[in-house]
Design goal:
Elements (H helix, E strand, L loop, with lengths): L4 H20 E2 L5 E7 L2 E7 L2 E6 L4 E6 L2 E7 L5 E7 L2 E6 L4 E5 L5 E5 L11 E6 L5 E5 L7 E6 L5 E8 L2 E6 L5 E6 L4 E7 L5 E9 L13 E7 L5 E7 L3 E4 L5 E5 L9 E3 L5 E9 L5 E9 L5
Parallel strand pairs: 1-22
Antiparallel strand pairs: 2-25, 3-4, 4-5, 5-6, 7-8, 8-9, 9-10, 11-12, 12-13, 13-14, 15-16, 16-17, 17-18, 19-20, 20-21, 21-22, 23-24, 24-25
Length: about 300
């Protein structure tokens, strides 16, 4: 058959488009349910090789063991939203009660923090990120009269505000070299990035990426970044509270993968220590109010 130049051109174009789609998108195939029967799972974090997470709706901190989740700590009214692994165990962000609680890995509470070192209250503590100096950054999402903020608790346990004016500060993470802090500004549907100073101070705030510039969405569908994790190469894994699944974004703000997952909300995620698996929280709004949640696992879409 005589080659048709126009047909060849069209075929090459189709192949290129398919290759691009394979690079930027991944389906929900391969997603496995690890734990069922949750309500509003959040705050996934590894302490060593063990995964801990919270259920905001039940005010529980849980530990994953196989396919079962064991409650290790509960406090009425806490509304836990985030966790950070510390030398003493776990630091819990209690969104509803405006506090941070230090607990052991077995659930014994040791310390409660309700304000910064200047006495200012913590309004809706949300998520946390550790650095290599023994310090912890955490967001306080704010309310109608208080803007979203970022606080830093140094190794000497001094808590100070390091950023403000954020429209619902949410997930955050420190870059592998310790030079940058990424923060999800949920209601602006974008990620911010700050330069980190020697004392943990933040400066040079700038927009890292707008999700609308990277991700496709249906008309009227919001894109809301929530939890943020980072791999050893500096790639950001961004949970989408709205937007379906999670996105993987390079240090140069390029979309590497968008992983579509079942359910409406995917608030947080954690990368396994070996880098091979991503654990993702998955939540739907239940009929009549409340939530129905699961913990999922998927293969790391970009490997390690």
């Amino acid at each position: 058959m005589t080659p048709n130049p126009l047909l060849n051109t069209l075929l090459k174009s189709c192949v290129s488009m398919l290759a691009l789609g394979a690079a930027l998108g991944a389906s929900a195939q391969g997603a496995a349910v690890v734990v069922r029967g949750l309500q509003f799972p959040e705050g996934t974090v590894f302490a060593g090789n063990t995964l801990y997470f919270v259920d905001y709706a039940t005010s529980d901190v849980l530990r994953l063991g196989g396919t079962k989740a064991e409650v290790v700590w509960h406090r009425d009214g806490c509304g836990p939203n985030g966790l950070a692994a510390t030398p003493a165990g776990l630091l819990v962000a209690c969104y509803d009660s405006g506090s941070l609680v230090q607990i052991s890995l077995e659930g014994k509470a040791a310390e409660v923090i309700r304000s910064d070192s200047q006495g200012h209250p913590l309004v809706a503590p949300n998520d946390l990120a550790t650095d290599a100096k023994g310090g912890i950054y955490f967001t306080a999402s704010g309310d109608a009269s208080t803007p979203g903020k970022v606080f830093y608790r140094n190794a000497e346990r001094v808590v100070r505000e390091v950023a403000s004016g954020i429209n619902y500060s949410n997930g955050l993470v420190v870059s592998p070299d310790g030079k940058r802090l990424y923060v999800a500004e949920s209601r602006a549907a974008r990620l911010l990035v700050y330069a980190i100073g020697g004392d943990g101070a933040l400066s040079d705030r700038r927009e890292f990426v707008k999700l609308v510039d990277l991700l496709e969405s249906s008309p009227g569908t919001a894109l809301t970044p929530d939890g943020v994790r980072i791999d050893r190469h500096g790639n950001l894994f961004v949970g989408l509270y709205r937007g379906g699944g999670f996105a993987v974004i390079s240090p140069s703000a390029k979309l590497l993968r968008k992983v579509e997952l079942p359910s409406t909300h995917h608030a947080n995620l954690a990368i396994s220590p070996d880098g091979k698996t991503v654990f993702v929280t998955s939540t739907d709004d239940a009929p009549g109010g409340g939530y129905r949640g699961e913990l999922l696992e998927v293969a790391n879409p970009i490997g390690d």
